[in-house]
Write a structure and sequence with these properties.
By secondary structure, the protein is of the alpha/beta class. It contains 6 helices and 8 strands. A 6-stranded parallel beta sheet has the order 3-4-2-1-5-6, with helices on both faces. A hairpin with a 2-residue loop joins strand 7 and strand 8.
Length: about 210
């Protein structure tokens, strides 16, 4: 993975030496390296657009590798993670290990009266998205999970993002061009171009990812 990062993927603030310093010398996980690559791509556009990252949200963060790098380089950022309850332990343990002094709130602790501004990392299940406020986030991320959802779920998440993102925002979406998924015994192609994009959306990048 480090070879691909160095030779093929976009250069940016994070270099191979930074990844080794963060995780140690032996890295055989493409997920870790992918998170650093995504950070570099996001940071490039953030610098172009002039956006400030005060609050960000990631849907399906996996191990939370990208958010780990964002929090390292932009420690003032408040991070929200939306995931299935069975997946949250992976990102939680990764981020807790890296930021043991940070303040965390987990889905079983979160409710309508929670003051999320007290926490660095806010973990919510996919059943708790109604707790998110309007026009609150600067950046949203989805990486390689929309392609594994039902079309109706993707539509629901796009509605969520259009509600909770600020007017000036950035959405980083890295997913398969097309992926066949089996739902209710039927093979359904989930296609990137069929996501509910809007003609009012501005494309900073629309290309096949080097990842």
């Amino acid at each position: 993975p480090l070879y691909h990062f160095e030779q093929l993927w976009a250069k940016g603030e994070i270099a191979v030496e930074d990844i080794i310093a963060e995780y140690g010398g032996k890295i055989d996980s493409s997920t870790i390296v992918k998170g650093s690559h995504i950070y570099n791509e996001i940071n490039e556009i953030i610098n172009l657009s002039g956006l400030n990252l005060t609050k960000i949200i990631e849907i399906g963060p996996g191990l939370g590798s990208c958010l780990r790098m964002i929090k390292k380089y932009k420690p003032e950022t408040r991070v929200f993670l939306i995931d299935l309850p069975t997946s949250i332990p992976y990102s939680f343990t990764n981020l807790l290990y890296r930021f043991p002094e940070a303040k965390f709130i987990l889905p079983n602790e979160a409710n309508a009266s929670s003051n999320f501004d007290k926490y660095d990392f806010i973990f919510l299940s996919n059943e708790q998205i109604h707790l998110l406020k309007k026009n609150e986030f600067d950046l949203a991320i989805n990486s390689m999970s929309f392609a594994e959802m039902r079309k109706s779920d993707i539509v629901e998440y796009f509605r969520l993002l259009r509600r909770v993102l600020k007017k000036e925002n950035l959405f980083y979406c890295l997913n398969a061009v097309e992926k066949p998924m089996i739902y209710d015994g039927l093979t359904v192609p989930i296609r990137f171009f069929e996501y509910p994009w809007s003609s009012k959306d501005w494309d900073y990048k629309y290309e096949i990812s080097r990842v």
